[in-house]
Amino acid sequence: MGKIKIDKERCKGCLLCIGVCPKGLMVQAKELNRRGVKPAEQKETDAQSCSGCALCAIICPDCCIEVYR
Length: 69
Ligand code: SF4
Ligand code: SF4
Known about the structure:
This protein is of the alpha+beta class.
């Protein structure tokens, strides 16, 4: 099981991580960050949902996602 941490203020809103998550756990936030884009965030999930596969972190061009497992 995994846990991720997204640096939402650095996220540029490219949304690549949303498409790549095999569990469909990534969504776009409703609020803008200080860059003026809506960043990625993880859905409200239970502790079992995220596998910690790290695909979201690997695809992020700006290394905004850290994975813990
Ligand atoms: S680590 Fe894997 S399962 Fe968890 S949010 Fe990222 S892509 Fe989805
Ligand atoms: S891939 Fe990185 S920069 Fe792109 S939306 Fe996801 S967290 Fe933000």
